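Hi all, long-time lurker, first post. I run a small reading group and we've been trying to get comfortable going from sequence to structure in the token notation. Rather than ask abstract questions, I figured I'd post a concrete chain and ask someone more experienced to write out its structure so we can walk through it together at our next meeting. Sequence below, copied exactly:
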Amino acid sequence: MSKLAQLDQLLEQYKQLNYHQDPVLNQRLREVQSWLKQRIQHTHQDFFQQPRHELMAQYFMNRLYGGPDFDPLAIQIERLLKYAHKAEKIIPENAIRTGLKSVGLALLAMQLDEEVAQQLLKDYPANTPLNDEIMRQTFIKLDQADARYKQLDLLDELGESLDKYMRSFIMYTAFKMCKGAAHKYNFDLMYEFIGEGFVAMKPLKSAAQFIKTFTVEERRIVNNVHSGKENPFRV
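-- Answer (accepted) --
Happy to help. Here is the structure in token form:
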């Protein structure tokens, strides 16, 4: 079986998302994602702004939390699957494995955020500005706590994979050597998606430790919301 077979499943899940056929839902989803990213940036501001953390923070915001950047990547994934045998020769196996975890996390974020957007459209006019209280009530109504905890568990697993598979000098050298071939076969976005993980890791002593620090605080936020704490998003 192709090492990229899991991508086919992820792509099918992506196609099933409702926002593709619903412009109003699509707009609300973008607003939800914007609110979430601003909240995350605020919560982790001091941590993210440390010089050695900036690149990994950008990787989180631009790649692992979905958003418009995922749409062109999904198109390229569909094309890549048609040439899986070539892609597997171009991209090292451990890089593919870690890339799959990253793509899966980005998709999970979009699935959860779409649920939030759908609930908002049920409860409020489509042009209602989002604020902390509206989002708090929506999260509670959806009861996404278990799914959000699972998302954070998968993030921790990604951190371990980054440390285990992507810190090897030989692996990084092999990956860089694939750049020309990736460009030749128009796999640039997928190559960059994985490559940014390499670059983001370089200043860190441990990607797993960075992610663990992030997920500990995020679990506190999820617990605050679902335990009824006032102002649950404030540090």
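A couple of things your group might point at:
The two ends are 46 Å apart (CA to CA).
The chain has a mean pLDDT of 85.
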